[in-house]
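R.M. (postdoc): so does anyone remember the format we settled on? I'll just put the structure tokens first.
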């Protein structure tokens, strides 16, 4: 997964993908098991998506 020329880019996308998967799993678990916690995870997920979009737009 590491490339000398694109190592940082691959690491960044791997990190973002990992965070997105973890947040998605926590959101689903919270939505099913803990409705109050599910709302909190949903807010965190929305914030994470907004930050990723801002990062992509800015370059």
């Amino acid at each position: 997964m590491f490339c000398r020329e694109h190592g940082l880019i691959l690491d960044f996308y791997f990190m973002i993908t990992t965070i997105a998967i973890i947040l998605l799993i926590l959101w689903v678990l919270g939505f099913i098991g803990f409705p109050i916690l599910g709302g909190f995870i949903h807010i965190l997920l929305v914030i994470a998506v907004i930050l990723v979009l801002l990062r992509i737009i800015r370059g």
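R.M.: ...and that's the designed sequence above, right after the tokens. Also worth knowing: The chain has a mean pLDDT of 76. Residues 50 and 56 are 10 Å apart (CA to CA).
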